[in-house]
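As a warm-up, study this chain.
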Amino acid sequence: MKKTIKAALKGITTATAGFLKKRGIYVVALALISAAALSAVLTVKQPNGADPAQTDDPASEVNTDIGDRLNQAQLPIATPTPSPTATPTPMPDFTPAPPTPKPTAVQKLSPPVRGEVIWGFAVNELIYSRTLDQWTTHTGVDVAAPKGSEVYAVFAGTVTEIFTDDSLGVMVEVKGANDMIAVYGNLKAEPPVKVGARINAGDIVGYVGDTAVSECGDKSHVHFELLKDEKYVDPQSYVLFIKELEG
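Now compare it with the structure written out below.
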């Protein structure tokens, strides 16, 4: 009896093994499909089901999740950019400008004699001559002074010429700096200087005479001329004449 049962169980086992051997792959596939379907059903039903692990406040869970994400992100804190400091507008300079210096007056030379000018400079115009009784030019100035008065050099220089002019009498010519030439006329004969002599301003170059034939009808005087760059110039622009008649 036992042998019969064993033989029957062995036959069932062998038959089951043969069936599984032949159909096993289908069984496994069916099991996998069943498991996937069950998982899908559970997933769909989970939001409506009562999940004991789920909190009662969904909003709290969401806030907690957002806070955790922010902490994990470790976002850098933005540093505020300082506003540029406004540059103050400079105050205008109210310092008064220094006064403009006045032009320095040209220092005029001392006159050859102390006296008033009785006949002025006239190169570009005619003036009346009492001695000649006619209108004529005048290349210098006549400065009134008593006969025999000392005549002084108006600047330093060298005596370049001593001569007698037919109209202006005995003449002494002195050449100074800056191409200036001074000529002293109507002097007494034999002046106290020699050609080539070096003289200083204020030295005596002669004495007032009466040798100027063309001016003998006028008061006693010295005829004085100035040339610059070999051209006649008005002596009153360079020499300070004293309007005072001596004698």
